[in-house]
Every structure is written in C-alpha cells, then in structure tokens.
C-alpha cells in the first residue's frame, strides 16, 4: 500500500469522514422525507436545527458532546424566537446583531467547544434573517429547529453508544499518523539534497500537528468517564498504546545530532542514506499501525529490521580514520535501535490478547488534561481592551452590524445574509487566520461556483444532479473541521444544485454568492486590520517566555536525576508534556506572525533561530533524561553538574531579557544534593557524558546570544498596538 492509498484509507476511516456522513444523513433525511409529503419548508427547518447542533458536535468525551449539543438546541431556539421578532424592524435587528454578535463571540474564552456553540447561535440568527414569519410561524419554526437539533443529538449519542471506542480509535490513529509523518521528516535530515533550514521549518510545523493530535487523544481518553472506568482489554489497550506512542515521540525528538557537521563529514560515505531509509521504513510501519487501529482492521505482520541495523553498524565500523570520530553515527544507531524497540513494544501490545493491568493503571491520567470552567467571573474579567477575546468580539459585532446595514442600503439580491455568514466564518481572533480564511473562502467559492455551473449546464439529469448534491454535501461536512478550502469548494456547488432544485436561476445565485463573499471578506479583513488588530509580533514574547520556563523546568528535572534523585515517572511526563505544548505554541505563533504584514513583523529571523534552538535544547535534555530513567540513580560530581547549572542560569537570564517579572527558579540557584559532594571523580564514560552536557550549555548560550541581538521592548507595534 503506497502513501497515497494510505492517506485515502486514513481519511475514509477518520472521525472527520464518519462525522461528515452522520451530519449529511441527519440534515438530508428530514428534507427528503418532508418533501415527499409536500412540506419541504418543514423539513428545511428541521435540517437547520440539525445543522446548528452539528457545529457543536466536536470530537471529545460523550458527556461533553451531549452537553454542548443540548446547549446548542436551547440557544438555537432562543435565537429563532428573538430574531423572528427583532427582524420586524431594522433598529431592533441591528441591536440584536451587535449585542449578541459580541456576546456569543466572547465564548472563545471558554474553549473550542463553547466557541462552536456561540457560532451555531449566530448562524441560526443569520439564517433566520431570510425567514419572514408571523408570530405563529415563529413559534412553529422554533419547535421544528428544536426537533432537528434533538434529532441530530439522538443520532450522535446513539452512534457513540453503538461504537463506544470508535472515537478514541480514530483520534489515536490520527495521532500515530502525525507522529509517523514527524519521523519521516526526521529522515530528511540525513539527506544531503534537502536544506537543513527547510527540514527544520517542516519539522517545527509538524510538531504543532502532533501536539494538537495528542491533545485530542487526551481529551477523549482521559476525560471520558466510560473509557477510564472500563476495565476491559480494549480501553486499557488504547490508553497503553497512546502512552507508548508519546514515549516513542519523545525518543524521536531525543534523536538529535549535529546534522550540519554530520552531513559535511559523512555525506559521501553512503552511510547517511541508509539511516534515512531505515527511519522512513520505521515511519511507514508506524503509519500502518495507526491505520490498523483507526480502521479496526487486522494489520500486516510486523517487520524486522535487525539485519539492516547490523549491516549499518558494520558499515559504520568499516569507515576509515580519515573521517575522524564516528561517535555521532554511533549515537544515531543507539537512537534508531531504541525507536525500533519501542515500535516492537507497540506492535506486541496490539497483537497480544490481554494488556497487563500493572502497566495500564499506574499513571494518574487525569493530571494530563486541563479542565475548562465556564463561569461568569471569567467572562467579566475579559471585558477589557487588553483581552484578545474582547477585541475579537468587538470586531465580529461591528463587522456584522456594518454588513447588515450595507445589505439594507445597497440594491441587493435575495440572499444578502451570505455577507454576514461570510463575516462570521472568516473573522478569527488572529489576523493571520482571518487572512488565510479570506483567501480560501474567495478562491474556494470561485472554484466551487465554476464546478457547480458546469455540472448544472452539462448534467441535466436530475438523478445525477442529486448524486452530485449528496457527494458535495458529504465533502462539505467531512472537510469542515480540517480543510476549509476543500469545504468551501464543496459547499458552493452543493448550494447551487439545491437552489436549482428549488427553481432558482443558478447563474444568478452563483454571481450573488461570489459578490457576497467578496463583500463579507472585505469587511472581515478590514476589521481584523483596522479595528483592535491582534498582531502576533506583540504577543509572541509571552510564548517565548513560556518556552524558556518549560525548558528550565525540564533542565531542573535533569539536574535532579544527575544529583542521584529518583525521577517520578508522572512528574517527568507532566514536565515533558509542558515542553511539548510550549514548543508547539511557539511554533504556531511564529507561523501566524510570518503571515502578517511585513511591516508588522519584528525579529523574524531571531525568533526563528530561537524556535530551532529551543527545539534542539529540548531534544538534548530528553536524550539525557531518557537515559537516566533506564539507569539506576547515582549522583554525579559537582564538576559534571556545572555545565547544566550554567545552562539553567543562562536561560534564566534570557527570561529577564524578555521582561519576565518572576523567572522560573533555575538549577543554578538550587542547592546541590548533599550526596553529590562526595561523589567519585568523572570517569572516561562521564567525560563523554559531559560533552553532551556542555553542548546543552552551548545551546543555552546561543539562545541568550539570539535574544541579546533583538529589541524585545521598544517597537512601534507595542507603542500603538491598535493602529494599522
């Protein structure tokens, strides 16, 4: 099975596709059945309720999904009643759009699931603008929307009851797929034909994806009362496999070398392509494991690369003295064997009939997930101009109001609410995300309109058109959460075919939709640029501080191990998770910053170096801590500890350069354990170990040098953060 076929198999067995299929079925069936009895309007109202609730049905624990879906039913009914009355006069409708646009946009402070509930409420409000109803009609519409929402909720909960482990399997499969991709990128570091700078950029970007997928698995596994309470083999296997995959990812990260020096010295020996080939082979094997878990199918027999590893070792041994020390290659071999062994453990766990309970139940998994509290104080505390959520909500409210007023004064068509809909889906808290959504919305609408018009022009058969409608509908809801461009390309022909069935001229609809998209996109872009703009360059310093804090804690943990203390597994994994999250947040913030206008960016090159150096630092700390966890605790001498203490002191000084008011306590300020005073002098093995510690000190120093080159305080954007 080649990579492209695996990608298709991953998609067809993914949660995105299964959710898309369920949403398509839930929305399509009410309209089809009602149309058979001559009540299409009734079916469309029920479908609208199902659509609104589907937006809040994000992957996660069943109890969280249920609460969000029921909350969406309530707010959708409320918005239907309120909008049905308010739309009778432009002033009341303007007030509703402004006030509720702000209120529901503030839900962003409560996390993604609450944000989707707010989006569903605003979507219901916007779609009700096109429904002129009397009082009885408003009540009837509210009841039908409630019925549609409850219909979707029932289907969603029933599917979870029938397949309780499917969501966890799908999330875990996607996580493994992301780690396999990360490993494949690591293989490119051994390829002399790819620039290291490009490799690092792709690696850092993929690290963001891995972090997101790991959080998704934790959300489902560790917050699900059913999964954590079950004592059957399946639930234990899922938890154990995820734990091993995170450990495998840690080993992949820890497999860091001085790639530039390695490529220069050994690039012509032929040994590096063999490393790359073996790493890619292991990544493909890991990809197959993820697919087998996600699709619940029997996987192929595991591969055995011990012969290739032995051959590679002999190749390294055969290198002549003219190449100098081969220590870097030997370290790579050690890392490669460790990854291969971890992969074998995962394979054995999947294939064995039962999971040992002593492995599955020894970690307090609840400590690895965060808990979002929905309360009024959080809302009230964000009602300040300093809050990014407040500024975003103001932008949304103003843009929606302006869009609504424009549709009143401009000579417009029958579907002017598309302007507001475009504003709602495009306008995001970060400028870079709004810019990206804008481009994708306009491009996708144009491409989708062309596709839809061509189908309606050259495929006159109604049955064939309906088949295309279902196909595009399935694509719309399958790509909704992970590929916005493809979703827009699918939704436009889907809507054109629907309006064609309703007897509306599809060419007029296509033209109006494109113009509405342009106007809505212009409003969203203007608001994100001019109205309380949220420039990443003004905030990325906070993310950099968090990265330094996480690495200092990681380094403190290393110091504890070097001092002879036993490292608690849970504490180690919590600190490791903190480093992963901080690193992913920093990489994501840097990506957003580079998408902003050039004159708003500052220290771009220095921040990129900071991102890469912290990645290198984390990887090297992970390498040493992994070794300490497998060895018996023993104290090292003060001489051995000196580089790591200096490195921690350097990072603490770097925090101060970034205006950290309360720097994390560094290893340099902590007393050395008493048992290190009488520790033996360094042995020859310790000297090699010290080289690694000195490299950590060197990288920490490089981080300090990078920060010393930049101006992190005085910048035009910080003087006038709200100006263009």
TrEMBL record:
GO terms for cellular component: membrane
Protein's membrane topology: Multi-pass membrane protein
Domain Integral membrane protein YccS N-terminal: 71-347
The keyword Membrane is annotated on this UniProt entry: yes
Coiled coil regions in record: none
InterPro entries xrefs: Memb_transporter_dom (IPR049453), YccS_N (IPR032692)
Regions crossing the membrane: 138-159, 389-409, 415-434, 446-472, 484-507, 514-532
Superkingdom as given in the UniProt entry: Bacteria
Keyword Transmembrane among record annotations: yes
Subcellular location: Membrane
Pfam families: FUSC-like (PF12805), FUSC_2 (PF13515)
Keywords of the record: Membrane, Transmembrane, Transmembrane helix
All residue ranges annotated as the Integral membrane bound transporter domain in the record: 402-525
Protein name, UniProt field: Uncharacterized protein
